[in-house]
Amino acid sequence: MLTNDCVIIVVGLNKEQLKDIPVGIIGIERTESVQQLSELYSVADVFINPTYSDSFPTTNIEALACGTPVITYRTGGSVEAVSEDTGLIVAQGDLSGLQKAIYTIKKNGKCFYTKACRSRAVTLFNKNDRYQEYVDLYNQLLDKK
Q1: Tens digit of each residue's pLDDT (9 = 90 or more) over 97-143
Q2: Exposure of 119 by Cβ count < 10 A (0-12 exposed, 13-18 middle, 19+ buried)?
Q3: What is the pTM (predicted TM-score) of this model?
Q4: Residue 43, helix vs strand vs coil
Q5: Which H or E run contains 65?
Q6: Closest Cα to residue 45, out of 117, 121, 123?
Q7: Domains within the chain, CATH numbers bracketed
Q8: Half-sphere CA count of 27, side-chain side, radius 13 A
Q9: Residue 25: helix, strand or coil by DSSP?
Q10: Could you tell me which residues are beta bridge partners of residue 90?
C-alpha cells in the first residue's frame, strides 16, 4: 500500500472510466495536447507504465524526454527505453515489486534521474536521427538490388 503522501494521476480515461475512479486517485481524460502531456510528465516524480503488452510504448520515451524516471513491467518493447539510471523495470504483474520501485525512486529523488532521462531520450530517440537512419538503411537495401 502506498503512503498518503503519494498522489496517483491516471491520464487517458474516458467519461465512463472517470465516473468509476476510486477516491484518492485523480483521473484525467485522454488528451491530444502535447503541451498538457509535457506538463503532466514534467510535474510527475515518476511515470508508471504497468503494461502487459506493448510493442514499444512511446509514453515511456515521452516521460524520459521530460526528465521523469519510468517504472515499467518487463514486457514487450517497454524495457528498450528504460535503463538503470532512468528508471526501474519490474516483473510483469509484480505489485510488490512495483511498490518497491516507487519507493526506490522516491527515496533517490527525481533529480537523481532527470539528467540521464533527458540524455537517453535525446540520444537514442531523436526522431530526426532515427528518420535519417531509416532513409540510409532503405537506400542501402535498394542499392544492393
Answers
A1: 999 999 999 999 999 999 999 999 999 998 888 888 889 899 899 98
A2: middle
A3: 0.86
A4: helix
A5: helix 58-65
A6: 117
A7: 31-143 (3.40.50.2000)
A8: 13
A9: strand
A10: 73
